[in-house]
Specification:
This protein has 110 residues and is mainly alpha-helical. Helices cover 59% and strands 8% of the residues. Strands 1-2-3 form a three-stranded parallel beta sheet.
Length: 110
């Protein structure tokens, strides 16, 4: 993909139905771009998304469809989802320069 920013403009929701994924990049990207997301309740998704409202039971097609329907048919549910995604973005984000500075500062004190 040449321009991921442009691609994310056209995404309505992100659905990650993985059975196993140690580092779900699509979920991380959706969080970064503050897109509505639903994901299977595997451990990596639980860690990244934290909120049950953003998860569906892995392998349960009815739960997946229900989650998608709720998200696509209700502006309130979509806004609630995005609010939770923004919270997760804040929790998972950090300033590389600041962190590196602190590491180097602590090393220099030794």
């Amino acid at each position: 993909i040449e321009n991921i920013n442009l691609e994310f403009e056209y995404i309505d929701i992100c659905v990650s139905a993985s059975r196993m994924d140690l580092c779900p990049n699509s979920v991380l990207e959706s969080i970064a771009y503050e897109k509505p997301i639903i994901a299977s309740d595997i451990e990596a998704h639980k860690f990244l998304l934290h909120y049950d409202e953003l998860l569906f039971e892995q392998g349960n097609k009815v739960d997946l469809c229900k989650s998608m329907f709720n998200l696509l048919s209700s502006e309130h549910e979509k806004n609630k989802n995005i609010s939770l995604v923004k919270i997760r973005k804040k929790v998972l984000s950090f300033d590389w320069n600041k962190e590196l500075y602190n590491i180097l500062k602590n090393i220099s004190r030794r």
